[in-house]
Amino acid sequence: MKLKVIKGNFVVSKIPFINNELLSNEFVFLSKTDQEISLVCKGELMSHHAIIKEEGYKLIRIEGLLDFGLVGIIAKIATILSDEKISIFVISTFNTDYFLVKENNLNKTK
Fold first, then answer.
1. Which alpha helices (DSSP H) does the chain contain, by range?
2. Are strands 97-102 and 89-92 parallel, antiparallel or unpaired?
C-alpha cells in the first residue's frame, strides 16, 4: 500500500452554511447532516465564518483505486497510528480513503 502526503496544511471545521466558492478548489471535503455541516480544506481557503475549527493537519491519501470489497485498510492504519498515540480524522471517497494527522505527528507516521 502506497501513501501520499498532499501538499499544504488542512483545517477541519464546522460551518453555518455552504460557500460555493470553496467547491471549486482542488481538495474540499464537505459533509452535511441534520445536525451540522463539516468542511475540510486547505488552511488558506478556510471560511472566516467557521463556527469552530481545528487547524494544523496534513492530508494523506491511500494511492490507487480501492475496491469496495477490501476490508481492514483503515483499521490497520488506525491501529498502527494508535500504537504511536496518533489520532486520525478519516475521509472516504468513491475511489480511495484519506486521513488527516496533526502536522507535528507527520514524521511519526512514516
1. 73-83
2. antiparallel
In angstroms, rounded to a whole number, what is the distance separating the alpha carbons of residues 82 and 101? 11
Can you tell me the distance from the alpha carbon of 41 to that of 30, in angstroms, rounded to the nearest whole number?
9
Q: Which whole number is the average pLDDT over 64-85?
A: 84
Strand-pairing partners, residue 100, are: 59, 89
**Which position has the grid cell 507535528?**
104
Q: Residue 40: what residue type? A: V
Q: Render pLDDT for 75-101 as a digit per residue (tens, 0 to 9).
A: 999 999 999 999 999 999 998 999 999
Residue 99's CB: how many other CB atoms inside 10 A? 22
- Please list the residues that pair with 58 across neighbouring strands: 101
Cα-only R_g, the chain: 14
